[in-house]
User: Fold this.
Amino acid sequence: MQKSTTTSALSFVDTTPTDTVDDIRADELDEQDELTPAELARMLPRVGERRWSQRVPALYPMAIRYHRARRRIEWMRSDTAYARAKQGEDLPIRVKRHKSLLLRQLGETEMWMQHNKVTNLKLACAQVDGVLIRPGETFSFNKLVGNATRRKGYVKGMRLSNGQAKPGIGGGICQLANLLHWMVLHSPLTVTQRSNHSFDPFPDNGRVLPWGVGCSIVYNYVDLQFRNDTDQTFQLRVGVGERYLEGEILAEQPTRSSYRVFARGERFLLAGSEYFRRNEIWRTVIDRRTGSRLEDELIRENVALVKYLPTGVNVIDVDLRQYPPAS
Assistant:
């Protein structure tokens, strides 16, 4: 089954069971058919191309050494005040609490990597738990957690490499970065560095949060950083429970605003033989005193290469020949 318009380079490939598909008229597709600049930037270089690290695998470790050396030089020259001090006693006000399931079947990945991930998360949480972020200070995941090495007790867990789940020392600590980022989006703290995965590796099996709010962490140059631009101190509490990774952001005083984070504009695209997924992450800021909406903020537009066959969703078939090549 295929639905298309005569005026667009896109057409719908229906992968949803026919008894659950809503009929979409051609005139309703006009406003959503055009590709966004982010979609074009992600899709045009991908079709028929591979990155140099894929073409010549020997270049990949060289690139890592280069980026790590560059980041070390940046740290030495930087005058950024990084958060380091910890406090065992909780600050009195809870800003946000969240927890995420520790063991979740992701595609065909082996569960032993999930169990080892729990060991790695316990070690990483010990470095973050209790840290204070004072006014003007910046939290850096890589600064606090450091390099996840075997010497420190880290074991092989699930790591994502070019969209594939592979065992690697320290694998799985991205889940802690994901938890922190989600909580920070519900606080007045300002995200200053954050990279997401350029691949969508697994179907939405038991997903709780919107797709696209996660983080990629690679020591030391792919980081999660956020800054305290307020006049009060915040505190992070994180730990591994029986079933969940748990976290809280605490503060000295109540915050003036609350926040709602959600996804818009989700769609799957097919270009040649490759599938892509896009959405937008938005945040609504709400006045705690009056309950009125203060503003809507676009946090990020996500576009990623999908590493599985999307099923149960509409897929838009894209003819990239209708678009000029990227300059």
